[in-house]
Amino acid sequence: MAVMTRWLDPDEQRTWRAYLTASRVLMDNLDRELQRDAGMPHAYYEILVQLSEAPGRQLRMSQLAQAAGSSRSRLSHAVARLEAAGWVRREDCPTDRRGQIALLTDEGFATLAAAAPGHVEGVRRHLFDALSPAQVDQLRRISETLAEHLTGS
Amino acid sequence: MAVMTRWLDPDEQRTWRAYLTASRVLMDNLDRELQRDAGMPHAYYEILVQLSEAPGRQLRMSQLAQAAGSSRSRLSHAVARLEAAGWVRREDCPTDRRGQIALLTDEGFATLAAAAPGHVEGVRRHLFDALSPAQVDQLRRISETLAEHLTGS
DNA sequence: GCGATTTAGTTGAACATTCAACCATCCGGA
DNA sequence: TCCGGATGGTTGAATGTTCAACTAAATCGC
Predict the structure, then answer these.
(1) Is B115 inside a domain boundary?
(2) Whether the predicted pLDDT of B153 surpasses 90
(3) CA-to-CA distance for A89 and A91, rounded, in angstroms?
(4) Tens of pLDDT, residues A103-117
(5) Does B25 touch chain A (CB under 8 A)?
(6) What's the structural domain count of chain A?
(7) Shortest CA–C1' contact from A97: which nucleotide?
(8) What SUPFAM superfamilies does the record point to (chains A, B) (predicted)?
(9) Residue A131 DSSP symbol
(10) Is residue A1 domain-resident?
């Protein structure tokens, strides 16, 4: 017997469309600003942030991929570029000869420190300034629920 | 005088991180499923959807770009591919000789009709199934507020 | 009418991402 | 100890996206 599609009801439709538009434009704006001000896309910024917060400003490639929400392949390519830019360096892992350690250089840290204020300002301006405190709270709960739902399954 | 950065407070930090994770994983999942089941990325699916809902299943390139939330350049490249796949056709605009009209072919419509149930099922499974009705309502309001804020400025 | 500006759309190059294939090393068990 | 699978990571090719430059046609101002 054919399984019937559970189509979206009008409310869900509206929600999904609005969500698509909002998230697309939000990320487009942040990406464009970051590219203009710091010379890197948001995904690369995320990599530098994760490294900067790790102990010793270094992480195994796999852990970094996990932390930055990137595939291993994508991270390999990205780190190759970041290394060429002088912002990241790679070292062999002493305990696992397959492993590579990515580590944030001083230059990379300085670049990140220079880019952060503008980026945070952008996040505030584009996102938080538009929402009430209650809405920020709702968005947090929704996002946490969703993140759990999506990564837990 | 130097302008102080308005850093994010801990609640905002948490919200922003959770949002980034949730929206990234959500879109990654939908994109992967659509690529696997329909042979196209989500952005291309959006283009076909917009065309399918337009009167006569056709739109001027600019209007289509606007509707699908795409840059004009991106749309040009995308439509070139969709045309090669036989899903879209281009025609000259009769009232403006600079203009081009993109129109959904029957084959394109059939492909979309075949892909839609699976995709909607994915949206439901990944997004709506995890949220309470109240949360769906909150997400709608937040997204609409945000979309207005971002496109209005 | 006519030059200046704006609008519509395309193009190619540089860059980013995905996918599958691949090599090397590690680990578990007979 | 050695075999088979799992893990860590990279690579190249195909595909998408961005950016700036470009052509052509419409529109504005006079």
Answers:
(1) yes
(2) no
(3) 7
(4) 999 999 999 999 999
(5) yes
(6) 1
(7) C25
(8) Winged helix' DNA-binding domain
(9) S
(10) no
